[in-house]
Amino acid sequence: MTTEPETLTERVKGLALATGFDLAGVAPATPSDRTVFLRDWLARGFAGEMDYIGRRAEERIDPRRVLEGARSIVALGFVYDPGERSVSAGFQVARYAGGDDYHDVLIDRVRAFEAGLPALADREVRSRGYVDTGPVLERVHAAAAGLGWVGKNTCLINPRLGSYFFLAVVLTDLQLDFDAAEPDHCGSCRACLDACPTDAFPEPYVLDATRCISYTTIESRDAIPEELRTAHADRGFGCDICQEVCPWNQRERRPIPEDPLGLRRRIAPRPEWKAPSIAWVLGLDLEAWQRATRRTALRRARYQGLLRNALVVAGNSGDASLVPIVRKHAEGEDPVLAEHARWALARLAS
């Protein structure tokens, strides 16, 4: 019995799985209706302070501007285990963020994948890979590559693995076979839209980032809008609500793949970030913050941002024992922290 030799596309996908990724698909390196949508999204002001998106918008719309001669985009997915949400009334951290920074963990795997392409193609290969850092619309390309569909919460959802996974993309001049897109399976479900505490979805499939807790606690450098603060509740870095309520993320239906390279163990939250107390976060000085956040995605919020977030969480906690440490920040020299601390003190007093 003879078998057909593997195609180049099949070998490329096999290489992706061998280097540690759980999902791999191929999409054309061309603009589409979904990439062009970025212009409208930016015009509506939904990017907020994320000016870097607009500065390279045309590259995000047309990937051939990122890599001249690009023909294919290999979309890669890596599942992380969200675990169970902590029931503590402390400082909640998004489940992806408490361990080693996924950018650092996965970019090594992307580089290994790229390094193997010339041997598979038997020629020099031009490529450019990113892990959530380049001027590319990862979710759009991953959806086109069949890794899942973009849900009403704007997360990519895989019908077998849910949405708790990271995306990487590799643009290449290889002409590969394109995968079929996954149909939308959201149907009439509104769980994510109805559960969002800040009403960050003006319509299904559209996110107003300026109202999203992940944006206000991580990306924004300004004061958190006062009308959104109580809705933050105990969320101090990021938010998982729209994923927690998604039926496709039910734990019993969502397998966690094998982890022979130990990558998921590295990304898993460190003990100090599984259920940190508000007082501990508010008590961090710059040096302690640097130690506690070393090699984690928590660095994205910066020192001031993490303390700002903790003051909002303190104000929502109802814990009067926090008043002395909150008052210390209210009397400090940082105007942003002082304003948030005064807000928190007023909340605690009431």
Describe this structure in words.
- The chain is of the alpha+beta class and 350 residues long.
- 41% of the residues lie in helices and 10% in strands.
- The chain contains 17 helices and 8 strands.
- It has helices at residues 8-18, 33-43, 51-55, 57-61, 102-121, 138-144, 191-195, 213-219, 226-232, 241-244, 263-267, 271-274, 278-282, 286-292, 302-317, 323-330, 335-349, and strands at 23-28, 72-79, 92-93, 127-130, 149-150, 156-157, 165-172, 235-237.
- Strands 1-2-7-4 form a 4-stranded antiparallel beta sheet, with helices on both faces. The chain has a two-stranded parallel ribbon with strand order 3-8.
- Helix 1 packs antiparallel against helix 5 and helix 16 packs antiparallel against helix 17 (335-349).
- The longest helix has 20 residues, at 102-121.
At a glance:
By secondary structure, this protein is of the alpha+beta class.
Layout of helices and strands, plus pairs?
Elements: H1 8-18, E1 23-28, H2 33-43, H3 51-55, H4 57-61, E2 72-79, E3 92-93, H5 102-121, E4 127-130, H6 138-144, E5 149-150, E6 156-157, E7 165-172, H7 191-195, H8 213-219, H9 226-232, E8 235-237, H10 241-244, H11 263-267, H12 271-274, H13 278-282, H14 286-292, H15 302-317, H16 323-330, H17 335-349
Parallel strand pairs: 3-8
Antiparallel strand pairs: 1-2, 2-7, 4-7, 5-6
Helix pairs in contact: 1-5, 15-17, 16-17
> What structural category characterises the helix and strand content?
alpha+beta
Query: Any low-confidence stretches, pLDDT <50, length ≥5?
Result: none
Distance between the termini: 79 Å
Biggest β-sheet description: 4 strands, antiparallel
Q: What count of helical segments does DSSP give?
A: 17
Please report the total strand number as a whole number: 8
- Into which percent range does the helicity of residues fall? 40-55%
Q: How confident is the prediction overall: mean pLDDT?
A: 95
Indicate the proportion of strand residues. 5-15%
The secondary-structure element order is HEHHHEEHEHEEEHHHEHHHHHHHH
Write down the Rg: 21 Å
Give, in spatial order, the strands making up the sheet with the most strands: 1-2-7-4
- The shape, in one word, is elongated
Q: How many domains comprise the coordinates?
A: 2
